[in-house]
Amino acid sequence: GDLAADLAASQQNVSKHLQALYGGGAVARRKEGNTVYYAIADESLLAMCEAVCDGVEQRISELSQIVART
Hints:
alpha+beta
């Protein structure tokens, strides 16, 4: 529930996405009683996400500068 609250999403929606990520091998999980803990399964995924986010941030910055000049 904590992740769902942080994302302002339903528990069902978050669970569905985490299950898909688990099925694809992107995350690992462990269960303790009724609680399931998820973690990134492959650290190279973090590097890929950072590269994508860096590119998006750079593009937004460039577009903001263009808009500010007009």
